[in-house]
Amino acid sequence: MTQQFAITPDVPWLAPLAGYSDLPFRMLSRSYGCGPACSEMVSVKGMAFKNSGTRRLIATCPEDDPMILQLFGSEAQYFHPVMEKLVSMGYRNFDLNAGCPVRKVLKSGSGVQLMEDLDKLVELAAIMVEKARQHPLGGRVGVKFRLGFNKGEEVFLDLARRLEDTGVDWVTLHPRYGKQMFAGQADWAKLAELKRAVSIPVIGSGDLFAAEAGVRCLDETGIDAVMFARGALFDPSIFARFIALRKGTPLPVRDGALLSEIVREHIRLTRLFEGDTRSFRKIRSIIPRYAKGLKGIRALRASLLECRDWEDLERAAAVIRDLEPADPEAPYPLVDDLCQ
Question: How far, rounded to the nearest angstrom, does the alpha carbon of residue 252 sit from its chain's CA centroid?
Fold first, then answer.
């Protein structure tokens, strides 16, 4: 990946979402105006031991640019060779996951568990900065974190200042504590505090379920950009909606026709970039999420389960166009196993 990118309020980001922000979904998001798009989180240790599953996670293409490759891990000895390998492969933009609160990640001392040991966290970020800068065009590194690990123990400001001194290019804050998982509300006021504390760009994440929330978050906090996570999962056109709101132009109508277009394109991209049995089952399970709020979703889900090939899938999904309009005010359900 070679594109140098600017971090601006008008260009929305796609969050790193475990199990979702793969190459097909990143490309789908880009078609609706997403700028920088993060990969699913990739285990540094898995990369070091050549785990076969990491190949799919780091898959990209020239059009998938700028792509931010997000890494997680806690052992410095693996970061050195893995970063060297990735830079030699052409990867240029990286992110360190210090915010995932899922138990299986915490057990390895990774994710938001790193916020219990800021020295280690900063050490890992420093390795990434050093190695990324060896890219011929110059690499960039960000770090995504939360307010702290335990509720009330805020270390995010100290951490951000130390990361800035280390040479990190941007920071992303999900303003909840690690122990909160996704409970309660994201405290956007902390984003404003972080923006005042550092001079590097600050990106905001958390409770941005609709484009309107993204615009409001920017207005209230003064941060440099917003990153959509769960909002994008249920409506990838959230990026186009956000851009339209920022420009003051008409918003896309979220109806059966738009959702049908989204589904058709996601199927096409999945088949193009992956096309195997695993990806077929995955996209088949994802389609009903796009149809949330449309009547007839139960029958749609049943028909999708009967599909045995890509053509069956396209025919079954085509009925979305004729379903009654979605309710744009319907709340989005929590998806607790996502690492944002």
Answer: 22
